[in-house]
Amino acid sequence: MAALVTSAGPAWADTAADGAELFANHCAGCHINGGNIIRRGKNLHLAALERNGVAGPEQIAVIAAAGQGQMSGYAAVLGEGGADAVANYVWQQAQLDWPKG
After folding, report:
1. Which domain, by its residues, includes 48?
2. Which 3-state string (H, E, C) describes 89-100?
3. What is the total count of domains within the chain?
């Protein structure tokens, strides 16, 4: 995670608001609070991400854009830079254990 931190703070800070909004609009229906209503083991909590070989936001962005398994790709829906914004938001939330507040 050290690569994500700059003197101004985490690199994901600038896109957190955009990522949060995109996540709420397009992802939370299946991934509320980082869960997964279809396949519980494929949730967005840090332990599950790591267990499934996801080690950072770059991999999350690829999955968000192209899809994986039962999940369709959302590149067109999320728009330019949207997959990266969502991925940064998801990674941030996973690091914080998806706070409920």
Report:
1. 12-95
2. HHHHHHHCCCCC
3. 1
pLDDT at position 1 is: 34
Q: Convert the pLDDT of each residue in 26-47 to its tens digit.
A: 999 999 999 999 999 999 999 9
Contact 42, 52 (CB under 8 A): yes
Whether residue 89 is contained in a domain is answered as yes
Cα(11)–Cα(16) distance, integer angstroms: 9
- Which long-range contacts does 92-100 make (Cβ < 8 Å, 24+ apart)? 92/10, 92/12, 92/16, 92/19, 93/34, 93/44, 94/34, 94/44, 94/45, 94/46, 94/49, 95/1, 95/46, 97/45, 97/46, 98/33, 98/34, 98/44, 98/45, 100/33
18, part of any domain: yes
Distance CA 92, CA 27 (A): 15
